[in-house]
Model the fold of this input.
Amino acid sequence: MIATLSGWIVRCRLSCLLLAALALVVGGSSTFAEAQTRPEVRLVLQITIDGLRADLINRYERGFGKGGFRRLEEKGAVYTNAHFQHANTETIVGHATLATGTFPSQHGMVGNVWFDREAGELAYNIEDPDSPIIPTRENASKGAQVDPAQKKSRTQGRSPAVLLAPTLGDGLAAYFGGRSKIFGVSGKDRSAVAMAGKAGKAFWYSTNTGDFVTSTYYYDAYPGWVVQWNARRLAAGYAGKAWSLLNDPASYLLADQDDRPYEVDLKGYGRVFPHPFGQTDDPLFFTRILVSPFGDQLLLDFSKALVSNEELGQDEIPDYLSISFSAVDAVNHFFGPSSLENEDVVVQLDRILADLFAFIDKTVGLKHTLVVLSADHGMADMPEYMTGLGFKAGRLEPDKIVAAANQTGQKLGVNEVVRFFYRPYLYLDDKKIAAAKLNRVKVEQAVADALTDMDGIALAVAASRLSAKDTSPLVELVRNNHHVSRSGDIYIMQDPYWFLFDKGPVKAMHGSPWRYDTHVPIIFMGPGIRPQRVQRRVHPVDVAPTIAALLGMSPPGAAQGSPLEELLR
Ligand SMILES: [Zn+2]
Done:
């Protein structure tokens, strides 16, 4: 028996080894074949449409031409059920997630701003005093800042220094021995910087000058082609002009949603078409350009100059270009996602995408380009729009949230228990809690319970709850958003269609864990990608690992997502 068994073991060893070797050859060849399936990719073109909720593509299809969204729908793999898995659906959070393939708990970008506990003040996500923006012109007048996150920045310097996880671009740089050219450009600094990662270079639109700028993190001085591009003063060319509808007004689904009292008038920009930009000496002039299709048009023009001058996609080493278009989000914030302005900016973006694809086809060849399109978050309809339709909705102001939290603290014996509040996080005053000799976790939980009882708040989640085995879906989203030193002690989650509102000029918002904020498109188009519509649930953390797999690379270092299997078959 023993002899037979040992004989079998010997035989098995041999045959199993053979089988294993065969499996290695077969499996190995498929793995390596996978790596070799896209040797034709010379350019990865990652497009992010800021604030493009997934359903807006379907909603506005009637106004689309050929070659833009229709090209993506016809030639691409379209994932119709993609949702972010973090609670605070804001711009830097979404971009960093797309770039790194992991959650804010890992990449550290938990919000556009967070409270710096050590310094005792708010921090803007990509601020960096060591990397000042390189000036593009002397005596540039300072434009008025309407971005509530930018207003919190303590310095004009910008870099990815506090992004804690490697990006896809960083992976490309490492894999190809530094030979891959990596760029991130956008209407917004944070969207360019996050996607460029540590190894790439970033340029973004300045609302002070209408120029595209960068910081000393990336360059000592502007490349000649950027100097030349800025010298053309394209943004200033819109002085005295206005944003008008592209198509026949009657052809728009939302033709009746132009003049609504709750839209924001940017001091003369108006609530109805046409929207006049004013003159360049108006502090809001260059901002208004960004709140129109022309912000994206300028970004398109700058991107073309970049592709030509940096000679992207001209050899067998894949280059990477991230373009994050900001106009849809900017228009959403002032007019809402169910406005005539929103419909027109998406329709005009469709033409801009068509122009971009035609240009890439001519310069690089679409057959050599892996196009990936997604968004950093969706967008919520304004409470006023929803109440008009019969929903209960409203705006929660920070003072009221802080007052309710302090009231609970008072009952427990702590005067002003709130150290700081900036949506969605509430930070408690540890020193005061310790001085009152109270149990910190109990205080945290008591305040969270009291806030959960407020009208308009769905759930306030105490950080201490995140380490417990609470697997309810909403808590999971907060957990994925929780970075131990940057996140607050209590995460405040509004009811659907309610806003955590900071009384700024921005009227429509995103940033909730609800489906209108988490639902984004994911579309892949390029060599070897079979046109298809995929309904299964997927996530933006899968995007970077998928691009990496298509190039035969390992996923970015901290990635939690998985390659989308339909694209690797
Ligand atoms: Zn955004």
